[in-house]
Design a protein that fits this description.
CATH architecture of the domain at 158-348 and 603-627: 3-Layer(aba) Sandwich
Mean pLDDT: 96
Strand order of the largest sheet: 5-4-18-17-16-6-7
Structural class: alpha/beta
Number of helices: 26
Largest sheet: 7 strands, mixed
CATH topology of the domain at 158-348 and 603-627: Dimethylsulfoxide Reductase, domain 2
Distance between the termini: 53 Å
CATH class of the domain at 158-348 and 603-627: Alpha Beta
Oligomer: single chain
Radius of gyration: 25 Å
CATH superfamily of the domain at 158-348 and 603-627: Dimethylsulfoxide Reductase, domain 2
Helix content: 25-40%
Length: 763
């Protein structure tokens, strides 16, 4: 029996695991008590990662579609030969604009994807990039980019030191933090309460986090932007603003512009749109201003929920709400203040550590490129996922449409609006390639599926989430187990695809995967020596590569980034600094300390200032003002989403130990609504909108606000050939079949997934 330490790659909490291995098999998993970040905390998903590794339905070999249309096992070379043949045909006949890529959420939990996918995207040469971000967090990233400079300039609550935490549309006791990497959220919230702090939760559902709070405000779905504007209005009109250290870094006239923008949004005016009494709104604003330290945080309920209008449509408000969260944070002096909202300083670097400190190019939002069918703008180089189906199944007059799709760790049939249309559209593709460990609702349409190894058979380092962490740490996890026979590292697969794409698109000799690896490493080294913020600035790129030899692959790139990063040894300039060898020698991780003030060097706006009032967002808030005069009536029932502790989108439903109990697909209804509709607990009901209908069991509970129906995301495993027996036995229903692709927040490209009117009837 041996014990191995590994950081859990299944969600943003990044908990440290202690994994017992007996003769090559996982014998047990517990939290690593000495982990510098999680201190022994672990959720049920982490403890059952061994079941994910052992899942007999997880793919171990490539699958290709045979002449009879069936997916059958194949060798890696046969799979790559088929990709080469089909991809060349599509590019030769239709060009690279006929190609598209969809990236799913797990990619940001995977160091191979983080480091090598940019090379694949460049090699493909396609402008058609789609990701799960436009059904998730892009409103927050877009607002942060406009205010502070980049899509990862997201200020996170300094939860370990705050005295007052206001949470909107988030359930961190279940999500374990999201866009706020914070292991052991239950312990952190208990510590907040123990030290006399106050927690207020705004949510139409009395979630686990709301039940642990000092106060719960059951807001009308979609009302968050109006509530935040009224809080800002109160802070301004009652002269409660104190911007603290951030005041010196505001763009000229931006404070005055915010004051003018929120002027119509009095607490009385927004009360019908929020369902929160005017007096309560004023009190919350005063409490925020009076607290020794305070922070405001929002998540999916603020980014993907819209406001139901009288005509039956749903108004996107996610980007405005995300902006107003940080407007309130700024007005109470929380920005860059201990106990407020601050920026992490990631050891491997990131957008807020690169370039000229304190100044940058800023962000162009929305982007200049447009989708072919609806003309929806790009954001951060991506198109809205809600437009993917129409870009495939709607040809132009000259026959142009998407003809080939590569999906990587994504399941858009379940995760994006109008999944049934996308399900049909995928069958019309000339080529579909999927990098995925399962035959799921999306990959079942693929011509080739290339499986990754088990999460326990690969190196893990949280490069992305270090940018969003509530404490600065660095940890490295070597593989716990060896890949099985025929399995190959994901970085090798991505590099081979990159080589194939490069040869086809450029018409040149196809490079070897090893050549791609060398080119990626050279690019990282060249960027480090050219970057004036890098500790390797001015050195020779060749010398950097020589210094990290004989490392290759992921480890070589990590060492380059770490040594040139903000804590690095600078390749000898800072002898006490970090190297990959030093990090690897600390199996429980290295604690780099609490968040620290980073203004003004963190800014990457063109002005070098905090743009508190971006013109796009001020205009978007102004467009909401007419609703103050005549608030649309609340529909009899609206839909909102639900997080589940023992689930992670769609891909954990085949793990036996996570099935059952609270991990169920139900529609939650308030007892008053259930009685009105003639529905009893456990009854099978039909939930419908103008675009679709699903059938699910009803769960009658007073945890939801009257007029609200609550369903989880990621279910709907009804096809006979997907996942495995555990998932299919508890298939559930795909909530996104109820969601229209028409409602898109153009400022962030994000689909509106909640807040729309629905009907619920006994089935």
């Amino acid at each position: 029996m041996t014990e191995h330490l590994h950081v859990c790659p299944l969600c943003e909490a990044t908990c440290g695991l202690a994994i017992s291995v007996d003769d090559g098999e996982v014998a047990g998993v517990r939290g690593d008590d000495e982990d510098v970040f999680s201190h022994g905390y672990v959720c049920p998903k982490g403890t059952l990662i061994g079941q994910l590794h052992d899942d007999p339905d997880r793919l171990r070999t490539p699958m290709i579609r045979d002449a009879g249309g069936r997916l059958v096992p194949a060798t890696w070379e046969a799979a790559f030969d088929l990709i080469h043949e089909r991809l060349r045909s599509v590019v030769t006949e239709h060009g690279t604009e006929s190609l598209a890529v969809f990236l799913g959420n797990p990619n940001v939990h995977n160091v191979s994807s983080t480091l090598y996918l940019p090379a694949l995207l460049r090699a493909l040469g396609t402008p058609n990039r789609f990701t799960a971000s436009t059904v998730d967090q892009f409103p927050k990233q877009a607002a942060s980019a406009l205010m502070f400079g980049t899509g990862l300039s997201v200020a996170v609550p300094d939860i370990d030191r705050t005295d007052y935490l206001l949470i909107l549309g988030a359930n961190p006791l279940v999500s374990n933090g999201s866009m706020m990497t914070a292991a052991d959220m239950p312990g952190r919230i208990r510590a907040l309460r123990t030290r006399g702090g106050r927690l207020v939760v705004v949510d139409p559902v009395r979630t686990q986090t709301a039940r642990a709070a000092d106060e719960h405000l059951a807001i009308r779905p979609g009302g968050d932007a109006f509530l935040l504007a009224a809080i800002a209005h109160t802070l301004v009109t009652e002269r409660l603003t104190d911007l603290g250290a951030a005041h010196a870094h505001l763009a000229n006239e931006s404070l005055a512009a915010v004051q003018s923008a929120v002027d119509p949004f009095t607490p009385e005016a927004v009360q019908p749109l929020t369902g929160v009494e005017a007096g309560t709104i004023r009190r919350i604003a005063r409490e925020l201003a009076a607290a020794p330290s305070a922070a405001v945080y929002g998540r999916m309920g603020t980014t993907t929920t819209g406001l139901a209008l009288a005509d039956g449509s749903t108004l996107p408000v996610g980007t405005v709400a995300s902006w107003l969260i940080d407007v309130v944070n700024a007005l109470i002096g929380a920005v860059d203040s201990p106990g407020g909202v601050m920026w992490a300083l990631p050891a491997f670097g990131g957008p807020t550590t690169e370039g000229t400190p304190g100044v940058g190019r800023g962000a162009t939002i929305p982007g200049r490129r447009r989708t072919r069918v609806r003309g929806l703008p790009s954001v951060f180089g991506e198109f809205p996922a809600a437009a993917l189906a129409e870009e495939i199944d709607t040809p132009s007059e000259d026959g142009r449409r998407l003809r080939a799709l590569i999906t990587i760790a994504g399941n858009p049939v379940l995760s994006t609006p109008d999944g049934r249309r996308l399900d049909r559209a995928l069958d019309s593709l000339d080529l579909m390639i999927s990098l995925d460990g399962y035959v799921n609702e999306t990959t079942r349409h693929a011509h080739v599926i290339l499986p990754p190894p088990s999460p326990l058979a690969r190196t893990h380092v949280d490069v992305v989430f270090a940018n969003l962490a509530v404490r600065n740490t660095v940890r490295y996890s070597p593989p716990v187990l060896q890949p099985g026979p025929g399995e190959r590292d994901e970085s090798d697969t991505i590099m081979r695809l990159t080589a194939i794409a490069f040869g086809i698109v450029t018409g040149s000799t196809e490079p070897r995967a090893e050549d791609v690896d060398d080119l990626v490493a050279l690019t990282v080294a060249q960027q480090a020596v050219a970057d004036e913020a890098s500790r390797a600035h001015g050195l020779d790129a060749g010398d950097l590569l020589a210094a990290v030899a004989p490392l290759r692959g992921v480890d070589r790139l990590l060492d380059l980034r770490l040594r040139s990063g903000p804590y690095g040894d600078g390749f000898g300039r800072h002898p006490e600094g970090l190297t990959l060898a030093r990090v690897r020698s600390a199996p429980h991780g290295i604690d780099l300390g609490p968040l620290r003030p980073r203004l003004p060097e963190v800014l990457r706006t063109a002005s070098g200032r905090i743009e508190l009032a971006p013109a796009q967002l001020v205009a978007a808030l102004g467009a909401l003002a007419p609703l103050l005069d005549e608030a649309p009536p609340e529909p009899s029932l609206v839909l909102v989403g639900r997080r589940q502790l023992r689930s992670n989108n769609s891909w954990m439903h085949n793990v036996p130990g996570l099935s059952g109990g609270s991990n169920a697909c139900t529609v939650q209804l308030h007892p008053d609504d259930a009685a009105r509709l003639g529905i009893t607990d456990g009854m099978t009901v039909r939930v419908s909108t103008e675009v679709g209908a699903v059938t699910v069991p009803a769960e009658v509970t007073d945890r939801v606000r009257t007029g609200v129906a609550c369903m989880p995301h990621g279910w709907g495993h009804a096809a006979p050939d997907v996942w495995g027996t555990t998932a299919r036995a508890r298939a559930g229903a795909n909530v996104n079949e109820l969601v229209t692709s028409a409602a898109v927040d153009v400022l962030s490209g994000t689909a509106v997934l909640g807040g729309m009117a629905i009907q619920v009837t006994p089935a």
